Amino acid sequence: GTQLSPGTPASPWSPPTAGSPTAYRLQTVQIVLKPKSSEELLDEATTNLRCVEWRHLSYELMSSSGGGPETYQLSRALAKGENIDFFMSHSWHDDADAKWKAL
């Protein structure tokens, strides 16, 4: 697997290799866990928090389970003092039409 340095986004996707039949292949990522205090965990979560702006949401995004670097690129880090307006979670298995109409 691949060991990530601190601050590196963990993406299970990597670019295709020569002769690869798919656009992206799943990559094993090794994460070293060590005990952390609740304060350290909160600080890490706050530092790594990202958002996706409404203008980047699309029917295709909500109906596909295929993620990768291009999907990650739709997100951005929060600016200092910025808050997220809404948190949305969804299942890839839910009806895409119903989800999109609800939005």
From TrEMBL:
Region entry Disordered, spans: 1-21
Domain of life, per lineage: Eukaryota
Protein name: Uncharacterized protein
